[in-house]
Amino acid sequence: MVVAGDMGTRKARNVLFNRYVNPVMLEFGFLRDRRIYRRFNGLGDCVLVEFQISQGIGGDAYCFYVVLTVVPRPWMEWYAAQGLPVDFDRPTQAHGMEERLDVPNPVASTRPDLWVVDTVESAHIVGVELAVALRPWLRELVGILDREVFVERLRERDDYPFGSRSGRDSVLAMFLSDRGMSDELEAILNKDEEEFRTRAVATDEEELATAAGSPFAKWIRERAARAT
After folding, report:
1. Which domain of life is it from (predicted)?
2. Would you kindly state where each structural domain of the chain is located, as residue ranges?
């Protein structure tokens, strides 16, 4: 049995997506797969926006997070090389670098990134705010599907929002490896190997780490060798 509150929340959710979310995502070329919207480039890199439901503040409200994720194809290949399951046609945030979209005026929650809709009226208000907040991020996501643009972002901005600094260095190394070895790539891999040894010391596995080396650095070097 569907109670009145559930029906009202469902109607509000439908208004939010049909009137506001779906049109703006389509405007930027994203294709919908349930509550995930994806766009690929010709090299298999993917950018996606996922609307993740949350228990939020309780009651009959529809509460959700907007998760923006960059999933480079080489990142998925690295996962696959480690024997981890990867769907290259339907990547998820688990395979990439993510950022959450903050609410402009988070009055309904102490979480600055928790969006809340509880009535049709609020769906219209939140929908307008959400579409406005999404546009610059979608523009950036589409822009970095050009790998040259993405490489420059990774090089220039320590405060680039997607992922950690080490994660961004890893993606940069993946892209650079497609051009063969270079001084820039060598510097990134040397840093990765040093961090790998540091972690090994912390876990009393220094001898094993010294013998085997960083598996990521090894994989990147092999990738770079194939590119030359």
Report:
1. Bacteria
2. 4-149, 164-227
